[in-house]
Amino acid sequence: MQCYINTHCTILFYPQTHGTRCFHPTRLSVTPPQQEQRISHDVDEKSKLITSSSNPFVKHCLKLRNNSSYRRSHGSVLVVGTTPIREIYRFQESSQNKNVTMDCLILPDKAEIPNGLDESADSIVHVSSTVMRKISGLQSTDSIDAIALMKIPASFSNLDDDQKNCQKWFPSAHRILVLDGIQDPGNLGTLLRSAVAFRWDGVFLLPGCCDPFNEKALRASRGASFQLPIVSGSWNHLESLKEESQMKLLAGHPQHEGLIKPVFSLSQSFCDSILDTPLCLVLGSEGSGLSEKSLQACELVSIAMTGEYESLNVSVAGGIFLYMLQPKNK
User: Fold this and answer.
1) What are the entry keywords (predicted)?
2) Can you tell me the distance from the alpha carbon of 152 to that of 94, in angstroms, rounded to the nearest whole number?
């Protein structure tokens, strides 16, 4: 079964029968012919809401939440909670950047459309509290009054080996955050949020990073995944970007003995000296740190610490780097 959503309905294609069914908020004919009678008992026809977790639309939402390849193939993602949904649309209104589309707004039974979202969704679906918990993945949905099914923004690019037209990746490439094997979605989402807060131009994801539209990454980013260009590619792509934009490669790395190359300190004078220089800041994972390629290709920079800890959490260190190296006149 495949599911496609347009402005009027969700289209589900069943390869076994080569037939389609259309899901409307007020007409739940979303099953193959042999299943229609059974599913009709799961739907409260009076209130027109979805009450069954086995409903095909609910199953589609669960796959979007749990499966990265499914999200990519359908070009859709679930955003849980009114706050990140509002953040996304507030950014879109302020930037005049109309690259975000909400296909469907999922609300609890009898709930009103949250303020500010009444003109955003193409369709509205009401669900029972059980289904709301199932779709959100949360034990308690007391604070969850909306879930949005949104298109993955056009500002996200998943590059093939042959895609090396760097000018299309980032409208501006003065400050680019590069994440090297960041697998923890909470750290990745927090770094995306900090990159937006400190006005960086975009984020480049090297192999080994988690999906920025992972449910935990979305929760930590509070909608930042939709607010700046994100490119997923290889070191070959990054080197093309570096050469095309004449960028300096810096990498955050703790100062310790045994390093072959020097490590600069993240001081104000150091930051001022490269203020006008286009740069990529590379951050590695907490577990394994920077990859060998990053260690070889980048100038290393450390955060001076008076305490005895060897290093900081990558999202904490990243926030400091992003603040100190942020563009000043943007």
Assistant:
1) Methyltransferase, Transferase
2) 19
